[in-house]
């Protein structure tokens, strides 16, 4: 089978490696079947998308809605490279799954409005599938309401005109959407379990997601969460397009 491609942008090795391990575990892919490129480390090499069964985009520290003057040269480069990539992915309806950062990137690319109206603290929240979500094959086997882990400063406030809303929540109306038949993005983190979110809380303690002094209190709350369903969509995605 052709491999899948994971595009990552986390500069911290601990968080980056934990993310890669989570995608491997939940998709059921071996390392040779999931090629990782860390975009923050250098320019994206030339890619022939025909070489891949699909593309996964992990989360990261960048926010699409950051003021232009506050974006680092690395962020500007990564955003430009992802725009060029999506210019190919969307017209071809190439299998694509973007987690968290993916919804901001794809949302902006497709003409949605991404801003800080619906940011969510690091937490476990109930996600509800829409009627379209209940019919989508990537969400097959998930309950209509399931718990997932979130933690984001921005979100999609206005759904792109090309998108179909698949999942929502009380505090963040756009939790997942699809463009075409095969291009997906989530606001929540389908790859995260409780140990994974604890790792990220420690790594990003000073990144502005929560008051740093509240780290241990936050971890204590997170450890009570039960998150077992979201990863199924990654397995479904790979099974559908492998």
Automatic annotation (TrEMBL):
PROSITE patterns: GATASE_TYPE_1
Record organism: Geodermatophilus sabuli
SUPFAM superfamilies in the record: Class I glutamine amidotransferase-like
Any single Gene Ontology cellular-component annotation: cytosol
Lineage: Bacteria, Bacillati, Actinomycetota, Actinomycetes, Geodermatophilales
Protein name: GMP synthase (Glutamine-hydrolysing)
InterPro entries hit by this protein: ChyE-like, Class_I_gatase-like, GATASE
Pfam families xref list: GATase (PF00117)
Alphabetical list of Gene3D superfamilies matching this protein: 3.40.50.880
Annotated signal peptide: none
Glutamine amidotransferase domain segment(s): 49-192
Superkingdom per UniProt: Bacteria
